[in-house]
Specification:
40% of the residues lie in helices and 15% in strands. It folds into two domains: 224 residues, Aspartate Aminotransferase, domain 2 (3-Layer(aba) Sandwich), CATH 3.40.640.10; 124 residues, Aspartate Aminotransferase, domain 1. The chain is an alpha/beta fold. It binds pyridoxal-5'-phosphate.
Amino acid sequence: MISIAKPIIGEDEVNAVTEVLRSGVIAEGQKVKDFEAAFAQYSGTSFAVAVNSGTAALHAALLAHGIGAGDEVITTPFTFVATSNSVLFTGAKPVFADIIEDTFNIDPESIIEKITPRTKAIIPVHLYGQAADMKAIMDIAEDKDLIIIEDACQAHGATFEGKSVGSFGEGTFSFYPTKNMTTGEGGIITTSDKDIANKARMIRSHGSKQRYLHEMLGFNLRMTDIAAAIGLVQLGKIGDFNRSRIKNAEYLTKSLKNIKGLILPHVDKRCGHVFHQYTVRIRGDISRDEVVSSLNKMDIGTGIYYPLPIHKQPFYKELGYNDSLPVSECSSKEVLSLPIHPSLNESEIDAISGSLQEIMEKRFP
Ligand SMILES: *Cc1c(COP(=O)(O)O)cnc(C)c1O
């Protein structure tokens, strides 16, 4: 089976972890500080605050901005549920805007329609490794005086007009094993606002700057030095990882381009896409789920990100959500992600494209 994702952990990571374990300092310590400095530099920001998941990064970034009950935060329903759950954690209300058909990212025009006097922030998600339209979104934010928290959990190293994601507003990244780089579990907030960085640090550790002096309500969101040691090694490799993903994507696109019924990933010219996922659209008159089961039978792993938009999730329906967001709803039935990770070799990519071609040709002989 060619798997949809595969973390790459080498001897360097093993040695880095061993060194931390032998040092006796295994929770948050110097490795976390070093990782934060290196990640801030990588993202083109002044500060980074490491936490224990991407979800924690989103939660802490919202809290650092004082977002809470009575506030609304506009985001996309076509994302992992953590994006909007983090808004719920704060007591604020997630408001869903629809997406753009060709990039699957939040639609700036739909954002404008959803703004009310209660709107405080926008969380654009850089889905599949491609930045949202940050030009249009930053213009809206400036015009309406809104906070931007980027969900860059799938987009380490991605750019928009040459600028790194996570440096437009506050950035939030995940280091879960399936992401472009990993620390096991982990996350980080990037910012160039010193006050926000300091607040996020306090929220990370029970509202304290100084041990046992608590100035606000906080949590335990800390990253361990064990995780940070893995992150430092992975950060040294992320450039190569992303280059492999981009190369694999180019090769797949070349192999798949003449297949009827298949819509290939659209890369916005302004974006440096890092292909966290290589996601095609299976035209509506063909059953995506049949294509998936045929591929799986041929030992090709697949992913559906995401099969049900958040506003249609049982829990959100219980909260009273009943929006109509047609592009998101249609996309969730048509998307199919193919393996693209850096460990793939050319013959495996040939197997992926060959199998898909064979399946699609049966539908369009
Ligand atoms: C992975 C992911 C998250 C959550 O990150 P965790 O580290 O799993 O908490 C949030 N948003 C998006 C878009 C993600 O892909």
